[in-house]
Write a structure and sequence with these properties.
Distance between the termini: 106 Å
Largest sheet: 3 strands, parallel
Number of strands: 6
Number of domains: 2
Number of helices: 6
Radius of gyration: 39 Å
CATH topology of the largest domain: Ribosomal Protein L15, Chain: K, domain 2
Helix content: 10-25%
CATH class of the largest domain: Alpha Beta
Structural class: alpha/beta
Order of helices and strands: HHHEHEHEEEHE
Strand content: 5-15%
Length: 158
């Protein structure tokens, strides 16, 4: 009769959390540099004399040579955070969108897909005003204003 161990297949070994450990040599103590001769060795891996052997050198220090950040050209000027960027619509586009004329606001232009809503709009004078437009709440250039008024329209700043 065969023994019990030989008839049964060996059970697979299950890996458990308490069995895990780092590979040999993977964990080493940190070298505390510059803490005296007793800590590691005479110069503690910093070499002989010089700035870097005595204390920390600031980032970007190039040994007295003119540093890169001073050699590169600088961006001059000033950008105002309060500058308003207008969305531009020309008169010829207004004539396409509103062939019969009528009242035109920034919301109406946004509905027709000429501009995005929530941002200021300015009408410029490229093209001709083919109908009488009434512009409300929209900035208008001087040339566009004269063309609109010549076509029987009006401009009001609300």
């Amino acid at each position: 009769m065969a023994s019990k161990n030989s008839t049964q297949a060996e059970e697979p070994q299950i890996l458990r959390m308490h069995d895990l450990h780092p590979a040999p040599g993977a964990k080493r103590d940190r070298i505390r540099v510059g803490r005296g001769e007793g800590s590691k060795g005479k110069t503690s891996g910093r070499g002989m004399k010089g700035t870097k052997a005595r204390y920390q050198v600031r980032p970007g220090f190039e040994g007295g040579q003119l540093p890169l950040y001073m050699r590169l050209p600088k961006l001059r000027g000033f950008k105002s955070p309060f500058k308003q960027q207008f969305q531009v619509v020309n008169l010829n586009r207004l004539s396409e969108l509103f062939p019969d004329g009528g009242e035109i606001t920034a919301e109406a232009l946004a509905e027709h897909g000429a501009v995005r809503s929530g941002r200021p709009v300015k009408v410029l004078g490229e093209g001709e005003a083919k109908a009488a437009f009434t512009l409300k709440g929209v900035k208008v250039s001087a040339s566009a204003k004269t063309k609109i008024e010549a076509a029987g329209g009006s401009v009001s700043q609300d």
